[in-house]
Design brief:
Elements lengths: L7 H10 L28 H13 L3 H14 L4 H13 L3 H14 L4 H13 L3 H14 L5 H13 L3 H14 L4 H13 L3 H14 L4 H13 L3 H14 L4 H13 L3 H14 L5 H11 L4 H14 L4 H13 L3 H8 L9 H14 L3 H14 L4 H13 L3 H14 L4 H13 L3 H14 L4 H14 L3 H14 L4 H13 L3 H14 L4 H13 L3 H14 L5 H12 L1
Helix pairs in contact: 2-3, 3-4, 4-5, 4-6, 5-6, 6-7, 7-8, 8-9, 9-10, 10-11, 11-12, 12-13, 13-14, 14-15, 15-17, 16-17, 17-18, 18-19, 18-20, 19-20, 20-21, 21-22, 22-23, 22-24, 23-24, 24-25, 25-26, 26-27, 26-28, 27-28, 28-29, 29-30, 30-31, 31-32
């Protein structure tokens, strides 16, 4: 068998990469009618057009080839091969819709044509139509279980993407039963066993994959992880050494080995590896990406800190390492250490802007909003053309109710990027809090004109109308549109309930407000709205219940709510 995969990265990408390999597999027997040898090919014969199409393909004349194959297909509409050829050419031109329509015609001729089913699955996989792709792959497997292992890999990957480990396991198990030499099948079985904490079975599967494909790096990494987890650090260390013996520049093996040695108390060995890694970052930016991928993205911040602090000792002036260390400490909720590392990132570095945003956010979280504002002002001096700084600074001014400063700052951001949607939205919120309803409405309308699917702006404008008791039909339309994009959003659901409340449709309002309270049970405004609706249908007991729940959640402006409660109690 041809070696399809050599490293863990290529192995994990196998199923999805194969989607692009959508050219139909030709059978040995052609499906078009070939003219007899003693009759010259004539334009009335489909094989003539088929042959001309092949010549056009070789000359790069794809549109002409599609036309010729189309004529052949008209003369021989029972040939699924012709539909496959045409669909493949369309897909090569990125004309996915035409490719899909064409292959559907082929399947209408023969719903059990295996190559057509695989192609149909490929296209739907590419279009993120997972259910259709799964059905097509499953049917192809049932019709021709021994055809090829890639169908199993594609189907297994779809089940894994859907989080359905049980069905994925069944597919990979079928794969290794049909294709015992499929190292990819054994590898993915190992992944599932490891995920389910069946470590011995996982070891067996990964070892089997390595026996079939000794160059498979990812299986060694997975085995090393299992041995670390089970306390067999020496075997894990040997596996990392094997990886480094095969490839001394394997940065992932270096990182994981250094971390293991640090945990084992082998300070000199780990320090040496960390130093080598830090020096390599100058020439190899992929090391930074690996650290993010291995530890920061999966939020393993403790391990990230060990790795990064070790590397910083080898290169104290490396701002990239300091930035990642800051992110890691922030993940560990150690603001002081995070701040220290972020402050080591100087202007001009690729992470400078992000570091300043983190610094200001840490100050904000500590309640030191003035320091947050000063940090962003400093950042703006060094990066005056960054509209994101204006967005955050405007938000901080909004927080301290300095609405004129917020407006001026956000408008500066729009001078830099006139179509910055989040700045427009934030400006609309500022106008609303400032009591400038007309300006707020106009600004939210601007957001919607720039981004008609912006659920937050649609909801904000709709709720504003409802709260004002005006344009209630338009408010309902806006909020229903927002729910198309965020159907399970408690706040948008509350807005729709509030529209019906304002329309006097209290039973309908109750339906949506109760759902909103289920989706966002901690929000005091939603709970108060629900109390108001119960009161309107004369259910004072439930009204009192939700008013009291709202009061427990509210931290300010409680007087109106307290009066509602007292009114019910007095009655």
């Amino acid at each position: 068998m041809k070696k399809l995969l050599m490293t863990g990265q290529t192995l994990l990408m196998a199923a999805t990469l194969l989607i692009c390999a959508c050219a139909p597999v030709r059978s040995n027997k052609t499906e078009v009618n070939v003219p007899a040898a003693n009759h010259p090919a004539r334009p009335s014969n489909p094989y003539y057009y088929y042959t001309e199409a092949q010549i056009a393909i070789k000359r790069g004349r794809i549109d002409q080839a599609i036309q010729l194959l189309g004529k052949a297909s008209e003369m021989d509409p029972s040939s699924v091969l012709l539909y496959l050829e045409i669909a493949s050419l369309y897909l090569g031109q990125q004309k996915t819709d035409q490719a899909l329509q064409t292959i559907e015609k082929g399947l209408a001729v023969d719903p059990n044509h295996v190559d057509a089913l695989i192609f149909y699955g490929n296209i739907n996989h590419k279009l993120k139509q997972a259910e259709k792709a799964k059905q097509a792959y499953q049917k192809a497997i049932e019709l021709a279980p021994d055809k090829e292992e890639r169908i199993y890999l594609l189907l297994g990957s779809l089940w894994m993407e859907a989080g359905d480990v049980d069905n994925a396991f069944k597919v990979y198990e079928q794969l290794v039963n049909r294709f015992p030499a499929s190292f990819a099948g054994h590898f993915f079985l190992g992944k599932i066993y490891a995920q389910q904490n069946h470590l011995e079975k996982a070891k067996t599967s990964f070892s089997h994959a390595l026996a079939l494909e000794p160059e498979l790096e990812e299986a060694r990494f997975e085995l090393a992880k299992i041995y670390r987890t089970s306390g067999d650090e020496s075997t894990a260390e040997n596996l990392y050494q094997e990886l480094l013996k095969k490839n001394p520049n394997n940065t992932r093996a270096m990182i994981e080995l250094a971390l293991l040695q640090h945990k084992l108390g082998l300070a000199e060995k780990s320090a040496s590896l960390f130093k080598d890694l830090s020096l390599k970052t100058i020439q190899d930016p992929d090391i930074i990406r690996k650290i993010v991928q291995l530890y920061i993205d999966p939020e393993q911040y403790g391990d990230a800190v060990v790795v990064l602090e070790g590397m910083i000792k080898g290169m104290p002036e490396n701002p990239d390492l300091h930035y990642l260390a800051g992110v890691s400490y922030e993940g560990l909720e150690d603001g002081a250490k995070a701040m220290h590392h972020f402050q080591q990132v100087a202007p001009g570095n690729r992470f400078y802007d992000n570091a300043m945003v983190h610094i200001s956010a840490i100050y904000q979280g500590q309640g030191e909003i003035e320091k947050a504002i000063e940090a962003l002002k400093e950042a703006i001096e060094n990066s005056p053309d960054n509209p994101e700084f204006m967005l955050y600074l405007g938000s901080f001014y909004e927080e301290i109710e300095a609405y004129a400063d917020a407006e001026a700052t956000l408008k500066k951001g729009l001078d830099i990027d006139p179509e910055h949607i989040r700045i427009h939205f934030r400006l609309g919120v500022v106008y609303d809090k400032w009591g400038k309803k007309s300006a707020s409405i106009a600004t939210m309308q601007k957001v919607i004109s720039l981004d008609p699917k912006n659920a937050n702006a649609l909801n904000y404008l709709g709720y504003t109308y409802a709260d004002m008791g005006k344009n209630l039909d338009e408010a309902e339309s806006l909020i229903r549109e927002a729910l198309k994009y965020k159907p399970d959003d408690g706040y948008i659901t509350d807005s729709l309930g509030w529209v019906f409340y304002k329309k006097g449709l209290f039973d309908k309002a109750l339906k949506y407000l109760q759902k909103a309270a289920e989706l966002a049970p901690q929000d005091p405004i939603i709970l108060e709205h629900l109390g108001d609706a119960f009161l309107k249908v004369n259910d004072k007991e439930n009204a009192l219940k939700y008013y009291r729940k709202s009061l427990q959640k509210k931290t300010e402006d409680t007087e109106t709510l307290e009066n509602k409660i007292n009114d019910i109690l007095e009655q």
